[in-house]
Amino acid sequence: MTETPDIIYTQQFVAANVQYLDYSEREEAVDLLNDFDLETGESNIQHDVDENLAGYLGYTDRKAATKLEDGLTGVYPTFTQDSLNLTHKQHHELADKIREAQKNKSMLWQGVVSFNPDFLERAKLYNPETGVVNQRAIKRAVQKAIPEMLKQEELNVPETFWWADVHLNTNHVHVHVGISQIKNTRPLKFGEPKGTFQTKSLKKIKSVVHREVEDKISREHDINLEKKIDELKKDVVDQLKENLQQQQQQKMLEQIWYALPKYKDKRRWRASNNSYDFREAKLLAGKLVDDLLKTDLNQDYEKYLSAIKQKNSDNREKYGQNIPDYIPEKQKDLHDYLMNRVFDELRKVDVVSTKSNFSERVKWLGIEGNNELIEVLSKQLKNTKSDIKAKKLKKEIGIRKYYVGILIKENKNKNYLDQISELKEKGLKNNFQDYLINDLQEKYRLGVLQLIPRNKRDNDNKTEYQKLINKHVDVSQISVKKINEEIVAQKNQYLDEWLKVVKNTKDPNVQIYLKNQGLKNVNLPEYVDLQKRIMQAKLAIKDNNKKYADNISLRNQKNGKLFKELKEDYEQLKNINSKIDLNQTQIRLNQANNSKNVSRQKNKSLAKKENTERKPKNSVSPRLLSKLSSALTSVKKEGQERINALRRNLDKEDDFEKQDRIDEIETETGRSMER
Fold this sequence. Notes:
Elements: E1 7-15, H1 19-25, H2 45-54, H3 62-71, H4 88-103, E2 107-115, H5 117-122, E3 126-127, E4 132-133, H6 135-152, E5 160-167, E6 174-181, E7 188-189, E8 192-193, H7 199-213, H8 216-244, H9 247-259, H10 279-294, H11 298-319, H12 327-347, H13 358-383, H14 387-426, H15 431-450, H16 459-472, H17 485-502, H18 508-516, H19 524-547, H20 552-594, H21 596-613, H22 622-642, H23 655-674
Antiparallel strand pairs: 1-2, 2-6, 3-4, 5-6, 7-8
Helix pairs in contact: 6-7, 8-11, 8-22, 9-10, 9-13, 10-12, 10-13, 12-22, 13-14, 14-15, 14-18, 15-16, 17-19, 19-20
């Protein structure tokens, strides 16, 4: 069941009409005194709001208005920005303004603020036993809120005026609001003044009224929550600066520096820049921030998220469940803020003549980051018309694909070593353990040899490589041209021996091996037979190519059936391998989560030890390192000063966000002038 929000505000617009003033003041709806009895009835305030809005147009009750005037000795319950209860003179002046607006065909905005009685009771503005409502406090809250809403709509001009009445004749307390202009200042749309208000403007009146009406205890809760968010954000940013000073983070910062495009206007180094030439630097900076938020900064970051979620929950209770979830927006704000602080300091670093270590950047960006960048570069290549630019893009794409291949092999090798260690530590000493450890060691050794360029392998390496590749090769990667009886025989022998061992699924060594290889719940005999069939089909195709070289028609006839079977087997093998990859990915994720805290402490100790015990090997000039070090120090100092402007009130814009937008506007202006 959906909870009823504390406040609802609904608004519509029509041409200005003086009768609306009479409607909002009718006697059965208003009470100049501060007490009334809430009528019993339905509890859904949205229902009340809809009914009231539906009755605005053309509604007149002169008789009720006259009674009210007679009974109140010249004082009206209507209030405006300057008065809580209008005099006769003020009332006539207001009516004249509405007539003038009507004459000039200005817009009339009719709004209803509806309060949940439970909220008013919590705010100590309504006593359910006596039925007394503190109208004065409600009026002052509306007087505070409407100007802020008008400012959002650029209606805070002398031509604008408004009035309102507190209505007590429905299930809930309502404030009926009228807004108009003596002379229209709004932009025209289809020949008429623009009538709709922005969503954030309508949200503004609810938030300000709520803030002004709620009791002191609740207000202190919000203030304390926002202070907590400020402090937690400060902790996250301060820890960022501290970690950046470590050797590893300084190395990461160095790679970001190398990747930054040489813009004439370096203010374009912003998290909001989506240009393809800035993509690598942005990905590197984003990866740095992501890694820190997941490791060193994780504890404070989780507390920050908890506070934001609490604030989001409070807002939904106040304004209803249909308000947007702003948690992702706040996460992105923090992420972009941390990235921009890094870019800010790098802008201050002078250009130093030094060789960019491209391979280091590619390696640190990782497989996922490089694949994302390759996709961006490929789209750019597809759309480019310049041969020179196309050649440059092709070269970079090729280099990145090459390095991605290396990274994949390195990750596999590390995984093999981890599996060997686990077998030795947790397995049972027997023949199965010896075989499986040897199997993993051979695969690791093959991976090491594959990382050595072919022209740099000596004869011993070449012999060892060929022996291992024949044994452990992926059958889908063997070409028809290169396959032969020797390769098939060696591979079949290995598969038979391997299956004989891994079929012993009750052995603890086999269980560990199958789990880490992603082979759990895989039909192993079927997996082996499938690989054998694929090799046999390729061998038969090669034999037919040789035997029927002079009879293409007969060769195609013989091979047609084989290719069809091969295609089906490939699809089946692909499905099994996908399942294996998925299992291995899940295992790595679980291992990463389990070892996160241990790894975090280990990395801190290792970084501290490296900083104190040995001087880092640097391939860059001391001048650049010095400037990067100074930049990191400035990030810490500047971040500490500017963080005080963050999140003083979650309904207001952050100072740093404003400055970021100013920088972006100035940058765009500068770029336009350059063009």
